[in-house]
UniProtKB/TrEMBL annotation:
This is Chalcone synthase. Residues 238-382 form the Chalcone/stilbene synthase C-terminal domain. Residues 5-227 form the Chalcone/stilbene synthase N-terminal domain. Residues 432-538 form the Amidase domain. Residues 455-471 have a biased composition (Basic and acidic residues). The keyword Hydrolase does not apply. GO terms for biological process: polyketide biosynthetic process. InterPro entries: Amidase_dom (IPR023631), AS_sf (IPR036928), Chalcone/stilbene_synt_C (IPR012328), Chalcone/stilbene_synt_N (IPR001099), Chalcone/stilbene_synthase_AS (IPR018088), Polyketide_synthase_type-III (IPR011141), Thiolase-like (IPR016039). Keywords: Acyltransferase, Transferase.
Length: 538
């Protein structure tokens, strides 16, 4: 008989919650920010408001946004003229759009995340769906479950109208689910379209006007889980801890109210000041237990709420200009996508780290912070860990070997597994040598552990493959390590094209008279010596 405590312990994962895949999507319609004012005032029949249009043009020019993607097209807006007025009744038309388009856009992002994850969608156990759009029952979580063909038993959480801080909230929930449900794989989807907020301009409504300057459409999806399957699932970011707070004196600074005119935004002009004056308190609360107080020593995933907010946070914390590059890039290319924004930034940062050959997914740094802010004024702060790029890349190098055999994983294989693969025609010596040399080519610039590769290694592997035949076809018997690639330390003599220097430049290019005794025995056993490694630090 087991106790309740034993049952609870068995239900919990051993490792931390980890983001394993990210997918993003946008509608096809793209609007350039420099031409948007003319389009916006024309489609809303507001061209007579010349002073307001000039103000709007100036706001767009100062937004640092280059383009935004939106579901709403000119054709759609002409069919729904009430949406183009400032506060005309239009909720039914808006709801008819969002209940279809929000799950559809979320599906596009989810498919990309599931593909990167590399596991069948039947292994998804939980779904978190988030959108600022209006409530509908059954909700967007149900619609997405149907669109993706997920198991009906998937446990769903639907989050409506949390606003811009919800990109951090969904990660908090995913962390709790992954770490407290052993084997859980959580699909997280944030899908936002501006059909719920779009409206014509008003001289007296600053909140709506700034929304038309900043907001764009986008969806992002993540797969989150603990205790990753080695060689199949890869870590992108680890979720360490979470903190949420309501900023003092912030009542009424960011609000959104759903009514007959859709979701009407209310913003005060002191939002940037409130956030910048309080952000360090949130950081200290989150990072003091970790012993981190230098905000330039971490990477930043900051909600791209607008350039003024980013500028004031940067100034208040003394951040170097490069620290908020990812937030500024996403703001420039997509605008403010509400809850999806920080997830786009996660994706952008890990992609650039791979492209630039950095050691970790988080700008080459180990620790980072994700923070979101929105109605309340609510701030969520989350410390993150970025794993080494070599861990992230590991599944890339399963190459042809795993492609030819679904039950053989070279990353986890031991000697017996490899010998079994040899004898059952699932692996050749050349494939194995190519695999190791490819890994060396990728990881050695970071690790600096291999001094040189044997230029004859592939030729030796080809020769070994010719010799390796099953006994009943007349082939000779081979030993347990025949065809195995092996690295030697640089102080072990090899009479071949490899140098033996013992870390001395004076011996570079010298020729040893014969193989060391160890090397002779290894060659007799059929080992492929594929390079020389650096020595231990003395």
């Amino acid at each position: 008989m087991v106790t309740v405590d034993e049952i609870r312990k068995a239900q919990r994962a051993d490792g931390p919650a980890t983001v394993m895949a990210i997918g993003t999507a946008t509608p096809p319609q793209c609007y350039a920010q420099n031409t948007y004012p003319d389009y916006y005032f024309r489609i809303t029949n507001s061209e007579h408001k010349t002073e307001l249009k000039q103000k709007f043009k100036s706001m767009c020019a100062n937004s640092t946004i280059k383009k935004r993607y939106m579901h709403l097209t000119e054709e759609i807006l002409k069919e729904n003229p009430n949406m183009c007025e400032h506060l005309a009744p239009s909720l039914d038309a808006r709801q008819d759009m969002v209940i279809v388009e929000v799950p559809k856009l979320g599906k596009e992002a989810a498919i990309k995340a599931i593909k990167e994850w590399g596991q069948p969608k039947s292994k998804i156990t939980h779904l978190i769906f988030c959108t600022i759009s209006g409530v509908d029952m059954p909700g967007a979580d149900y619609q997405l479950t149907t669109l993706l063909g997920l198991r009906p038993s998937v446990k769903r959480i639907m989050m409506y109208q949390h606003g811009c801080f919800a990109g951090a909230t969904v990660l908090r929930l995913a962390k709790d689910l992954a770490e407290n449900n052993k084997g859980a794989r959580v699909l997280v989807v944030c899908s936002e379209i501006t059909a719920i907020t779009f409206r014509g301009p008003s001289e007296t409504h600053f909140g709506s006007l700034i929304g038309e300057v900043l907001f764009g459409d986008g969806a992002a999806a993540l797969i989150v889980g603990s205790d990753l399957v080695p060689g199949v699932e890869k870590p992108i970011f680890e979720l360490v801890s979470v903190a949420q707070t309501i900023l003092p004196g912030s009542e009424g600074s960011i609000e959104g109210h759903l009514g007959e005119a859709g979701l009407v935004l209310h913003l005060l002009k002191n939002v940037a000041e409130l956030i910048s004056h309080n952000i360090e308190d949130s950081l200290v609360e989150a990072f003091k237990p970790l012993g981190i107080s230098d905000w330039n020593s971490i990477f930043w995933i900051a909600h791209p709420g607008g350039p003024t907010i980013l500028d004031q946070v940067e100034l208040k914390l003394g951040l170097k200009p490069v620290k908020l590059w990812a937030a500024r890039h996403v703001l420039s290319e997509y605008g403010n996508m509400s809850s999806a924004g920080v997830l786009f930034i996660l994706d952008e940062m890990r992609k650039k780290a791979l492209e630039n050959g950095l050691k970790t997914t988080g700008d080459g740094l180990d620790w980072g912070v994700l923070f979101g802010f929105g109605p309340g004024l609510t701030v969520e702060t989350q410390p993150l860990i970025s794993p080494l790029i070599l861990i992230v890349l590991s599944e890339t190098f399963l190459t042809k070997i795993t492609a030819t055999s679904s039950d053989f994983n070279i990353i986890e294989a031991i000697v017996a597994n490899i010998q079994h693969a040899f004898t059952h025609d699932k692996l050749t010596s050349r494939q194995l040598v190519d695999f190791y040399l490819d890994r060396v080519k990728t990881f050695n610039p970071l690790l600096q552990s291999l001094l040189e590769a044997n230029p004859d290694a592939r030729d030796q592997a080809d020769e070994d493959d010719k010799q390796r035949e099953v006994p009943f076809r007349g082939g000779r018997s081979v030993g347990q390590v025949h065809d195995f690639p092996m690295l030697l330390k640089d102080n072990i003599a090899t009479n071949d094209k490899l140098n033996t220097t013992a870390r001395s430049y004076a011996l570079l290019g010298s020729k040893v008279p014969r193989d060391a005794g160890m090397v002779k025995r290894l060659r007799t056993a059929g080992v492929v010596i594929f390079g020389k490694a650096s020595l231990t630090e003395w």
